[in-house]
Amino acid sequence: MEFKKCERCGCFFVSQDNVCYNCITKDRAEINMLKNYFDINPNIEANSLNALSIQTGISEKNLNRYIQDKNSDISDLVNNHLNM
Questions:
Q1: Per-residue b or e along 2-26, where b marks 16 or more CB atoms closer than 10 Å to that residue's CB
Q2: Does some domain include residue 8?
Q3: Who contacts 73 (Cβ-Cβ below 8 Å, separation ≥6)?
């Protein structure tokens, strides 16, 4: 385990994750919200992360983190709906 700075809130914590315990719950909620958004709107295409952020209420910073996480299936899901 390492002493790290949370990528979401900036607090320091000890874990193998990139976000603290409190933010893991928030990330999971946002990821579920994003999946539900795409389930409800399967043909939606966003022109940018900013547009997707506005449509979902999830910050661009967090959307970028989810996209860059190669261990997550959310990366492919978002990329499939981005029209850039």
A1: eebebebeeeebeeeeebbeebeee
A2: no
A3: none
Q: What is the spatial distance between Cα 59 and Cα 61, in angstroms, rounded to a whole number?
A: 5
Question: In terms of Cα–Cα distance, which of 69, 83, 77, 82 is closest to 34?
Answer: 77
Buried b (16+ CB within 10 A) or exposed e, 38-77: beeeeeeebeebebbbeebebeeebbebbbeeeeeebeeb
| Assigned token pair, 12 | 């320091």
For the whole model, what pTM was predicted? 0.83
- Indicate if the pLDDT at residue 84 is higher than 70: no
Nearest to 77 by CA among 17, 23, 36, 22: 36
Any domain includes 74: yes
Q: How many domains does the chain have?
A: 1
